[in-house]
Design goal:
The chain is 39% helix and 24% strand. It is of the alpha/beta class. It folds into two domains: 180 residues, P-loop containing nucleotide triphosphate hydrolases (Rossmann fold, 3-Layer(aba) Sandwich); 78 residues, no CATH class. The strands form two sheets. A six-stranded mixed beta sheet has the order 6-7-8-3-9-10, sandwiched between helices. Strands 2-1-4-5 form a four-stranded antiparallel beta sheet, covered by helices on one side. The longest helix has 18 residues. It binds adenosine-5'-diphosphate (ADP) and magnesium ion.
């Protein structure tokens, strides 16, 4: 059984069907990239998987199955148990998602205590341990910092650390490196790939950068105007596809074409 399966999924905002007939399968431990121009529906698709589409968007046709179970019928209580535990999400700028008036440690402790019945002290220690595992130096200082006191790269590592606390089977990442400089981008990309190797985490990474996508991913999904235009193995997308749109995207990235991107 696949870890995640989208079958003929339509997603609408109001009366407008934005994503049409989306089919996507992800196996355990697989890394899949969704690429495509801005507005093509990438964020909409991964938010649908997490049951968190913005602006009243909803799935209006098809099925989303996680380990064979429909995610579309979950109760709010079932969602709370799954989200942030089995399925986690990291955002373009995890720092911007955090409450700017609260220290990292306070948010981390609260997050852990929504999933586990532990004391604040235990939660704090667990948070620190996760930061250390994500190779953030001086985790105690980070726990005591406000988001704005950290660099973009540090904040993104904090976001990944939080997302990985419960060793999710599925990590959804929406443009996780777009706000970072190239060097930090490369570090974060490597770190995400290590998560798969160490924890067996399956990852869907949304990126407008087909270079990052084809470097990281086992499978690449190309979206255009709310439709999956092309998909296949990284080799398919890099070398084999006849799809003119995919080829156009590839040609726009001079660093791709057999060479390592990072
Ligand atoms: N909250 C919203 N309300 C209405 N339409 C939206 C909303 N969010 C996104 N859309 C529309 O859905 C389409 C896909 O957007 P999105 O999934 O954000 O694309 P991407 O992540 O690929 O840039 C766009 O046409 C966008 O205008
Ligand atoms: Mg987006």
């Amino acid at each position: 059984m696949a870890l995640l399966e989208l079958r003929h999924v339509d997603i609408s905002y109001g009366n407008r069907v934005t994503v049409k007939d989306c089919d996507l399968t992800l196996e355990e431990g697989e890394i899949c990239s969704i690429v495509g121009e801005s507005g093509s529906g990438k964020t909409t698709v991964i938010r649908a998987v997490l049951g968190l589409i913005a602006g009243g968007g909803r799935v209006t046709a098809g099925e989303i199955l996680y380990e064979g179970r429909s995610l579309l019928d979950l109760s709010p209580r079932e969602w709370r148990a799954l989200r942030g535990h089995d399925i986690s999400m990291i955002f373009q700028d995890s720092g911007a998602m955090m409450n700017q008036t609260r220290r990292i440690g306070s948010c981390f402790v609260e997050y852990i205590r929504t999933h586990e019945n532990v004391s604040k002290k235990e939660a704090w220690e667990k948070g620190e341990d996760m930061l250390a595992r994500m190779r953030l130096p001086d985790p105690d200082r980070i726990m005591r910092s406000y988001p704005f006191q950290l660099s973009g790269g540090q904040r993104q590592r904090v976001g990944i650390a939080m997302g990985m606390t419960y060793q999710p089977k599925l990590l959804l990442a929406d443009e996780p490196t777009s706000a970072l400089d190239v060097t930090t981008q490369a570090q974060i990309v490597r770190q995400m790939m290590e998560l798969r190797d160490e924890y067996g985490t399956a990852i869907i990474i949304v990126t407008h950068d087909i270079g990052v996508a084809s470097y990281m991913a086992d499978r690449v999904v190309v979206m255009k105007d709310g439709v999956i235009e092309d998909q296949g193995t990284r080799e398919h997308v890099l070398y084999e596809t006849d799809n003119p749109y995919t080829r156009k995207l590839m040609e726009a990235v001079p660093s791709v074409g057999g060479k390592r991107y990072v």
